[in-house]
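hey can u check if this looks right to u? its 76 residues, i copy pasted from the old doc so theres a chance i mangled smth
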Amino acid sequence: AYTPLKATMKPITTKTSEEDSAIEKVIGDIREEMDIEILSTEFESMTADTSINKCPHCGWLLAWDQHKCPKCRKEV
């Protein structure tokens, strides 16, 4: 009996060693084209997000424009 599910099913195939070597060659070409110096300077220039404010008294997270903690009611 014909079912639409059988029409869409594909057999499972595995990669051959030729396909693996072709993929590795493409990946190797991409790695050679990338400028490692640019990547290293991007990583060196990364900094932590300092826009998150915490109350120094209780540790409650504050909005960037809050000057009074809503939890402990102390001035920040």
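The mean pLDDT is 75.
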